[in-house]
């Protein structure tokens, strides 16, 4: 596609509800990243995929957070039993094949999650 | 992972050149320096990337001294639409980036 697409753009969840956030990366991009961005802060790394393999999930804040990319393209970030502290913008980024040195990451517009 | 330090905010006026300096004292040999721009309610957008000396593209220049412990993003003749948050990052051979709070740049008419 033309860019990284995330859906939904906005999500309001009641505390305790499960949510699923979707990311469609740029076609052919090997690397996919999820970030969490709180208001007024820079993005914080959550997890990283290379194709379908989740190579790093060290940034996931708790076991309520789960990400997958089963076919190496679309990715889903799932948050179970949402809490108010989960309210943030969730950003997805992808980068070109290789994803190594000198690689530009392209970001989606993000999903703004509000837990009430 | 190299940590970056940059000013929290800056003001300037339309038509001026704006320079934002970032320090990255523990940058490693293989690390690249990358700058992103972020508008409200948007994802970050790549601006420029460099390894040493000077890099220029259609929107900005990046100056990196020989010791590579700092870098300066230069935006020529800014306009109101350049009001945004600018992030300096060091990107290494791994994938994980550490983002600071960035520099909030406000351009005044």
Describe the structure.
The complex is a heterodimer of chains A (116) and B (109). Chain A has 116 residues and is an all-beta fold. Chain A has strands at residues 5-7, 10-13, 19-24, 31-37, 44-50, 53-56, 65-68, 75-79, 88-95, 105-107, 111-115. In chain A, strands 2, 4, 5, 6, 9, 10 and 11 form a seven-stranded mixed beta sheet that branches. In chain A, a hairpin with a 2-residue loop joins strand 5 (44-50) and strand 6. By secondary structure, chain B is mainly beta. In chain B, 0% of the residues lie in helices and 48% in strands. Chain B has no helices and nine strands. Chain B has strands spanning 9-13, 18-23, 32-38, 45-50, 53-56, 61-64, 70-75, 84-91, 103-108. In chain B, strands 1-9-8-3-4 form a five-stranded mixed beta sheet, with no helix packed on it. A four-stranded antiparallel beta sheet of chain B has the order 2-7-6-5, with no helix packed on it. In chain B, strand 3 (32-38) and strand 4 form a beta hairpin. Chain B is globular, with a radius of gyration of 13 Å. The N and C termini of chain B lie far apart (39 Å). Classes of the chains: A mainly beta (116), B mainly beta (109).
């Amino acid at each position: 596609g033309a860019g990284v697409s995330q859906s939904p753009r906005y999500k309001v969840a009641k505390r305790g509800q499960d949510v699923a956030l979707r990311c469609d990366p740029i076609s052919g991009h090997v690397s996919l990243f999820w970030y969490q961005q709180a208001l007024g802060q820079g993005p914080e790394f959550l997890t990283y995929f290379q194709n379908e393999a989740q190579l790093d999930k060290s940034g996931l804040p708790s076991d309520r957070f789960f990400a997958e990319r089963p076919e190496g393209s679309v990715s889903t970030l799932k948050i179970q039993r949402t809490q108010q502290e989960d309210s943030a913008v969730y950003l997805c980024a992808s980068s070109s094949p290789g994803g190594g040195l000198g690689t530009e990451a392209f970001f989606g517009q993000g999903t703004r999650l509000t837990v009430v | 992972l190299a940590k970056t330090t940059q000013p929290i905010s800056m003001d300037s006026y339309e038509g001026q050149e704006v320079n934002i300096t970032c320090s990255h004292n523990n940058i490693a040999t293989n690390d690249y320096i990358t700058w992103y721009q972020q508008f409200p309610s948007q994802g970050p957008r790549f601006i420029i990337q460099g390894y040493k000396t000077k890099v220029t593209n259609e929107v900005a220049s990046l100056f990196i001294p020989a010791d590579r412990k700092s870098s300066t993003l230069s935006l020529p003749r800014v306009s109101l639409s350049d009001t945004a948050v600018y992030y300096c990052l060091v990107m290494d051979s791994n994938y994980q980036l550490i983002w600071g709070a960035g520099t909030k740049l406000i351009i005044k008419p």
